[in-house]
Every structure is written in C-alpha cells, then in structure tokens.
Amino acid sequence: MLRVLNVTRADAAQAVRNPLAFIAERWTPSPRTVRRAAFTALAMMVVIVVTGGAVRLTGSGLGCPTWPKCTDDSLTATSAMGLHGVIEFGNRMLTYVLCAAVGWAIIAARSQKPWRRDLTRLGWAQFWLVMGNAILGGIVVLVGLNPYTVAAHFLLSTALIAVATVMWQRTREGDSEPRPLVGKAVRQLVWFLVVASALLIAAGTVVTGAGPHAGDSSDVPRMNVNWEDVTKVHAVLAWIVVTLTFALWFVLKAVDAPRGPLLRTRELFLILLAQGAIGYVQYLTQLPEVLVGLHMFGSCLVWIGVMRVFLSLRERPDVTPQVPAQADPQLSSV
Would the pTM count as exceeding 0.90? Predict the structure, then answer.
C-alpha cells in the first residue's frame, strides 16, 4: 500500500506562503542531485541558444509575427503558418522547459542541507535573467527582428550562461573563503582572457547582425557596417583569445600550477581550435546554415570554457566544523 502524507491545514497554508521552505523541510537532495540540477539548467540554456539560432537560420524569426501570442487571434501556431510558425512557436515553448530546469535547480539548492544561500541566489539570478530575456525576445519580434535587439538577446543569453556556469561550479565546491591557486600575474592574464572573449562574442553578434542570415524572408534591416571588415575584426579577436589561452597554458606549466587550471586551459584551447576551424570553413563556403549553427554552439562552449578557466584559479574547500574532543569517562573518574 502507498503511504499517504498527512497534510494539515497549517501545512497547506505554509506551502502557499513559502513553497520552497515547505519542500526543503521534507526533502534533502544529495550533493550529486544538486550538481545535476545545476548542470541541467546550464545545458538547457545552451540548447535554447542553438534552437534560437535555428529559428534565425531557417528564416522563421517572424513565424509568429507578434508576441506574447503567436498571432493576433491565436496563442499557438496554426496550420496556415506552415513550418516557420512551428519552428518559432517551438522555440518559444522551450522557454518553459528552461524555466522548469532553472526551477529544479532553485528547489534543489534551497533544499540542500545545510542550506547554501549563495547557490539559491545564483538560481534566482538565472530565473530573472530568463524572464528578462523572454521579454526581450518578445520585443525582438515586435520590432521586426531589429539586429541590435537580436544582438542584445544573444548577449543576455551569454550572461545567463555565465551565471549558470558559476552555479554549476559552486555545487562542486565548499563554502569556505576562496583561496587562490596561482599568483596575481596569472590571475590578471586570465582577466585579459575573459575580457577578450567577451569582446569576441560581442563582435560575433555584429557579424551576424550585418551578415546575410537576417532571420526572416521579409525585408529585415541589417546593421549598417561592412560585413567583411567586421568579420576580420572578429577573426583578429579570435586569434587574440587563442594566443592568450596558449600563453596562459605555457605560464601555468612554467610555474608548476595545480592540475585543475591546466586541464581547464587545455580544454579551452581545444575548443577554440575547433571553433576557429568551423569559423574559417563557414567563411570560405559562404556561410552555410549548418556550419553557422555549429559555430553558435561553439560560441557557447567557448564562453563556458573561459568561465571554467576563470573559476579554476581558486578553491573553496568544505568547511569542517571543529568539534571538541570528548573526555574519556574512565579518565574523568580517576
């Protein structure tokens, strides 16, 4: 027989007032469950970025011509709207899946014992960024895929991925004060890497905003810049990021740094090589949609890799409470 929970009226009132606290009192997830929840939220963010790119690359950006409804008369896509409507509306529905993944991460972080307030705050930061980006996505549709709003939409997704990566890393650490694993000069080099990577991603949005993939078959405005010139700037920034990554790996080897930073830097270097190869091939082959989509996926992996390098430069051991030794009762009786 199934055990039926005895929920009183007071329990129901508490659940309405503070559902997270109500769940936390009755469920304690394992650290592994919390890590999985944080990783699921991060993975779902990458998925929605890639599917958002698919919306653009298939020319389905205005498949649902208005927002928050799909049309003025229908909340969902209709058969008359064809494949473009299905693709655009499907991407909108994935936002709810992302909200569910972030919600699971928040609930798992709140229910962990002992409660780690910083993890919960990181989860809520993701939630509000998702809400803000959903509204911005609606604005993108309402203004007819204005390329500057599209770029802002992608950059906010990048910020969301950064917060999710921090939360995922924090689930693998303790709560003590961070202790640096490398010297100040190395940390400054990594800061240059982070800034250069952010500029690289921002330049990538300008390349997209000026390029041929407008996101819809209608007359969508493009950024008033020379596409080839911006592409060259993007390539230069990419080489700067690759050079900084290689220099960082060389410095870490020279100073005999711990294994963690070395591994994260090597992983980032390999991702950058693959991303660069895709970038050059897509440029030489006139930007085929499949390669552009792979390049967007690679952009997410590059940013996650950069964040992991940055976070690997310090450690946060578990806080072990100092329990006073118990006196031997036989000695105390002597």
Answer: no
